[in-house]
Write a structure and sequence with these properties.
Glutathione S-transferase Yfyf (Class Pi), Chain A, domain 2, 6% strand, binds zinc ion, hydrolase, metalloprotease, carboxypeptidase activity, metalloendopeptidase activity
């Protein structure tokens, strides 16, 4: 089998044309076996453990498995089908079992620890020290140093936690699916866009029901709240949305919230940490809950006055328009949209002709060329997984090979929604041979039609720059070890390269390079650019306070000893007090549907969104000061951030780039919250 399986043969680029779906499972199973025997060789070696024969060997083990699984999971996101999804279900438990076995391998940990314990006597490079620390922590943070019975306690907690998170998520999903708003009186649809009404009618028809049906899914809920004139119906929808997991029935999540918070605390205590947040933040740029707390509070102090002013303006506007006496949560999106239209009247259709996809791609390549000397040449010599995919050879100013770049722009069945960057292969150096990365971005941009090319909305333009910023992090990587290369950095640092590049979309000097009318070639009028900038700051104070409130709620559950907390709603109200703008809705609770932190991996991490904005604004300010195409600043960014990956602590890297720690002032200025 293996000789005929293209995935198990040696290949430079992913051999898409030869891969059949039935190759994946045997290839993954065999690659796991191969990786297992590599690990076993390291663990059972008779020689004295050294950095090379233990840490480095461990780092380079499972290479085949990495290549095969990255092809498989990338396709499962970008070009999937029922068969691939079924295989994903089958191989996922095998892969997590394999990873667990490594972490629980005592003989292996003994050797890793032996190297770690003599780290100060070893003559290691900075990158090697980071790698050693990372490998050691992968074991210690999972209890490898604990006595047997404590280890078992930890496994028990982990088991309970994963069951509780799963149940939390199932409840939220069931609550979302349970509710529908059926409208049979057409007057109640006042304000809704035609196409949106049609969709709601189709939903009703598919369920053999009369009229129009609206649900709590985002594509239905968000436009409804934005456009529906009927205030009572908005109230009904908003309360249903906010009461998920808070009905006191079998789908209620209050017990889950309390149990999860308490078990996470216990787990952290077992491992010697003060709280769950202390545990999480040990591997973050922010480092401690105290630092996150003061970060959030400093921003709140600056944003709150602006938010209160914006709130008063909105309330006044609602009063003028519809005689609303007290602005409630269900009024927010509706009147904000109306006010935004009044102030900016900025229509996507006006902007789109200036953003033909091909022009924007040229633009982002030109920006990368001016900043980092990169050249992109389309190639047909590399295999693709779909004819729509474009492939480029990326070289530097000396013509040296930098990366292979895949770009996949348009939606199709089999591609999940959204936009993302991924890799088929990381950059690394092994046996003194430099391996360059294979980087990919996948998007879902408006397709061309017979009469019109693909014209992007401004939001799509910034999305392309964002994902391309992640791609640069991958392409310009220059490290030795793959697990420290490119975007393999701490969670609250990974969005810096992507978000910083979005800033170029708002700059005249950059827009002039590519934002030209697709028919006339006329450059985008500057008043339109100014309007884009202004409207991007619309209600920035309120938005900021909202994001901060989520970050504070997250910390309120994870940076404390939650043993005595028994009332979820009361706890939450206390956490929301400093950020409160709207009257409380007693029927609603945020925590019982806060999937980011109770189901997904964002616990003690919600602050990262704002943290990344502070970083990108502060970094871009440096570019602005010296010129947005300053070679000096670009070199510093490349040499200290993009090429360095996770080889050093992000704060060290950042300070080397910027000459100082990041400050929130640049963000506050950009957002119009303080004077420029
Ligand atoms: Zn991103």
């Amino acid at each position: 089998m293996s000789t005929n399986n293209p995935l198990l043969q040696d290949f430079k680029f992913a051999p898409f044309s030869k891969i059949e779906t039935e190759h994946f499972k045997p290839a993954i199973t065999e690659a796991i076996q191969l990786a297992k025997s590599e690990i076993e060789n390291i663990a059972s070696a008779e020689t004295e453990p050294t950095f090379e024969n233990t840490i480095e060997e461990l780092e380079f083990s499972g290479e085949k498995l990495d290549r095969v699984t990255s092809i498989f999971f990338n396709l499962n996101s970008a070009e999937t089908n029922a068969e691939i999804q079924k295989i994903a279900q089958e191989v996922s438990p095998l892969l997590s079992e394999f990873r667990n076995d490594i972490i629980l391998n005592e003989a292996l940990f003994k050797r890793v620890k032996a190297v770690y314990d003599q780290k100060d006597q070893l003559d290691l490079t900075t990158e090697q020290k980071t790698l050693l620390d990372k490998k050691y922590k992968a074991f210690s943070r999972n209890g490898a140093n604990l006595p047997k019975e404590k280890q078992e306690e930890l496994r028990e907690i982990d088991k309970q936690l994963s069951a509780l998170s799963l149940n939390f998520g199932e409840n939220v999903l069931a609550e979302t699916n349970k509710f529908e708003l059926q409208i049979t009186n057409e007057e109640d649809l006042d304000g809704l866009p035609e196409s949106f009404k049609e969709e709601a009618k189709a939903v009703a028809e598919s369920k053999d029901k009369e009229g129009w049906i609206f649900t709590l899914d985002y594509p239905s809920y968000i436009p409804f709240m934005k456009y529906a004139k009927n205030r009572e119906l908005r109230k009904k929808m908003a309360i249903a949305f906010g009461a998920k997991g808070f009905h006191g029935d079998e789908l209620d999540n209050q017990e889950n919230v309390l149990k999860i918070a308490k078990l996470r605390y216990q787990r952290a205590q077992l491992l010697g940490f003060e709280t769950h947040a202390h545990f999480v933040l040990q591997e973050r740029m922010a480092e401690t809950p105290e630092k996150v707390d003061s970060f959030l509070n400093e921003l709140l102090e600056k944003a709150k006055p602006a938010a209160e002013k914006e709130f008063a303006t909105l309330e006044e506007f609602a009063k003028e328009l519809d005689n609303i006496d007290r602005l409630e949560k269900w009024d927010s999106a509706y009147y904000s949209e109306k006010l935004k239209q009044k102030l900016f009247n900025l229509d996507d259709e006006k902007l789109k002709p200036y953003f033909k996809l091909e022009n924007v791609i040229d633009g982002v390549f030109t920006v990368a060329g001016k900043l980092y000397g990169l050249q992109f040449n389309e190639t047909s010599e590399v295999e693709k997984y779909h004819p729509d995919v474009k492939t480029y050879n990326v070289t530097d100013e000396n013509g040296k090979d930098v990366a292979l770049f895949y770009a996949d722009f348009h939606p199709r069945p089999g591609k999940r929604g959204g936009a993302w960057m991924t890799e088929y292969k990381s950059q690394y150096v092994k046996n003194e041979k430099e391996e360059r990365p294979h980087v990919s971005i996948v998007c879902n941009f408006t397709k061309p039609t017979k009469s019109e090319p693909s014209l992007l909305t401004f939001n799509e333009v910034t999305t392309l720059f964002h994902e391309f910023g992640h791609a640069l992090h991958g392409m310009l990587a220059n490290t030795v070890y793959p697990s420290l290369s490119g975007p393999n950095v701490y969670w609250d640092f990974v969005e810096l390269p992507s978000q910083v590049l979005e800033n170029w979309c708002y700059e005249k000097e950059a827009l002039q390079l590519f934002a030209k009318h697709y028919k006339t070639g006329e450059a985008i009028p500057m008043e339109l650019v100014e309007k884009i900038k202004e409207s991007s700051n619309f209600q920035e104070g309120m938005q900021t306070v909202r994001q901060l409130s989520f970050g504070m709620l997250d910390l309120s559950w994870h940076a404390i000893d939650p043993t005595e907390v028994n009332d979820v709603k009361a706890h939450e109200n206390k956490a929301f007090e400093p950020t409160k703008l709207y009257p409380d809705v007693p029927e609603n609770c945020m925590s019982t549907a806060f999937s980011h932190i109770f189901q997904g991996g964002y616990s003690a991490g919600y602050y990262s969104y704002k943290w990344a904005e502070v970083l990108d604004a502060d970094a871009f300010e440096y570019f602005s000061e010296k010129g947005i195409f300053s070679k000096e600043v670009a070199d510093k960014f490349k040499n200290n951030i993009l090429s360095m990956g996770g080889t050093e602590h992000p704060m060290t890297l950042y300070k080397r780039f910027r000459g100082k720690e990041p400050q929130p002032e640049a963000l506050l200025k950009r957002a119009g919250l303080i004077e420029k």
